[in-house]
Amino acid sequence: MYPPKSVSVSISPSGEIVSGDSVTLNCSSDSNPPALNFSWFKEGKSVGSGRIFSISNISSDHSGEYKCRSRNKHGEKNSDTVMLNVMYPPKSVSVSISPSGEIVSGDSVTLNCSSDSNPPAEISWFKEGKSVGSGRIFSISNISSDHSGEYKCRSRNKHGEKNSDTVMLNVMYPPKSVSVSISPSGEIVSGDSVTLNCSSDSNPPAEISWFKEGKSVGSGRIFSISNISSDHSGEYKCRSRNKHGEKNSDTVMLNVMYPLKSVSVSISPSGEIVSGDSVTLNCSSDSNPPALNFSWFKEDETSAVGSGQSFSISSFSSSFSGRFYCEAQNKYGSQRSASVSLTVKGVQRAALHTVSGIVVGCGGLIFIIIIFIIIVFIKRKKRREGGTEDVNQKQTADASDDTYAALDPASRTSADIYSTITSVQSRAPDDTYTALELQSRSSEYETLAVTSADPH
Questions:
Q1: How far is CA 333 from CA 263, 303, 328, 369, in A?
Q2: Residue ranges of the chain assigned to CATH 2.60.40.10
Q3: pLDDT single digits (tens) 374-388
Q4: Topology of the domain comprising 88-169
């Protein structure tokens, strides 16, 4: 009699065991008396009894080291362990992202695919259904917004394959591709309603601000203008901003078309218009598109008197005097200006200046004549009184007699008088001074005043 010895385990069927198969483990031993007590252990834990240990529909969970224990009344003995290696397709496939938490453009990111399979599986990576890589690890350095999206891995061995659940790679980045669109497109006319839309790509979504000519005019992705006018014309842009940065769109031109307004007339040269002057009337207006047609009218006349932005009148005369206005027109309408008055001014004043010049000129001539009459009168008086005169005085008297004769209104013209006066002035300046000096004598002045009325 002896206790168990040569205890061993055999597996049936032999060869590769695949999940789903049925497997039998048989425990054999040599003992006397024969062992009647058999126990089975997996990884040290009791899993059954009896010489035969059967597993139907085996799975990966049955893989492991098995042994049996044979016992009789004289003792017991364990077999060597045998490995039950169950082959199975991938299962429990999943993806983890490192580092965890918020991912910002420029970071480096690693995706790890884990799976359970026997034999080990091959790993493939997919983004949005398209293959992007292979291997258990998928790394992205200097990540950008283009890497955002849904990722998954596929684990495959010869027994089958399995995909992981998708994971979202959510890359944070500042705004980019910022642009403005105008609706409706095409020509914009005053009174229309217009919408400006700002589109941008950013994560997280950005806050939108609107600017016209550099000044803030609104916020929000949509900027609406109802009953648009010419005041709304100008360059617009939007600014997209999130916590990672900001970006401006390119400027867009909001070009509002509108009919004529603020039509006015200016006169060049400004100021007084004298007969013979050249005058230009210029018509200015505000419109979009600019006015191309200008017509000129004179009040109380039915037909136009001119065309073009400028209307010129050369050699202006009183016949042109009146009130004029212009009418400007573009394809959206027309408007007339207020009337301006064109009048020939300064004609009477010019005539008055001419007459005054004549009077002044004649007055100066009369004054000279009177002076020489005084000289002549004084010389003749001295002669009658028998006063002694020197040679120079006699010459002066002779010259004075000549002057007297020359000034005789009955025989001399104004041209002759002027010639004579000029001659006398050059010949007797000293005598002229003497005559002027004698005017201070009141008695003689009175005599002169009485006799000056009679030139003889």
A1: 12, 20, 9, 75
A2: 2-84, 88-169, 173-254, 262-345
A3: 877 777 766 666 544
A4: Immunoglobulin-like (2.60.40)
